[in-house]
Amino acid sequence: MALAIFDLDNTLIAGDSDHLWGEFLIAEGLVDEASYRQQNDRFYQDYQAAQLDIDAYLRFALSPLPERTSAEWQKIHQRYLEQAIKPLLLPAATRLLQQHRERGDYLLIITATNGFITRPIAELLGVDEILATDPEVIDNCYTGNYLGTPCFGDGKVINLQQWLQHSTHTLAGSYFYSDSINDLPLLEQVSNPVAVNPDERLEAIAVERQWPVLDLRSE
Q: Which domain holds residue 62?
């Protein structure tokens, strides 16, 4: 059994669940359109340029959560899954996950997108577990803060190492699939790094280092 690790956004799904969540909130009238879209777009551009201030972004992304109860957000999130996420599912990604299942591998998503958004997506994809930056909850209410080390860049490596300390799994024979240069620290830790529809900078590194490059969007 090997550890098969996957990035989520623009890897297992054909889009960015974090940015799409912001667009969904705007469409639903749950945030102020002008100011929220401007910030949402700016942070996404920073992410693509590998210049994201993850602390500032998480505080922005989590700021709407204290305004409603967990039960209210659960219903809203279900609409988001149906309207924004299910259309982005990739048949080739589904087959890739199934290939690893059939080999007996353990399927783990590691994502920078916060756990409120991504845990239901991981459940939809049927993976074994997900590591994400989880929002703080006190008395069943979101505070707008987050817990632990942000699961982004080097933080993905930190979160994975902490998880491995309490797991029977190791990185021997492990895989990590990602589209983003932001994930280079973790790609360098696994036995089998794989670039999936990579951005320009990651593609150049993958070619130089002779890493496999997959296209999961060709269908």
A: 3-214
Cα gap 31→133, rounded to integer Å: 22
- 41 catalytic? Reply is no
Strands 141-146 and 135-138: antiparallel
Q: What is the pTM of this model?
A: 0.95
Q: Which whole number is the average pLDDT over 152-162?
A: 97
In a domain, 18, yes or no: yes
Residue 7 is a catalytic residue: yes
219 within domain boundaries: no
From the list 9, 105, 179, 183, the catalytic residue is: 9
From the list 7, 16, 18, 179, the catalytic residue is 7
Task: Over range 87-101, report the average pLDDT.
Answer: 97
Q: What is the CATH number of the domain that holds 102?
A: 3.40.50.1000
Task: State the pLDDT confidence band at 1, using cuts at 50, 70 and 90.
Answer: confident
pLDDT surpassing 80 at residue 219:
no
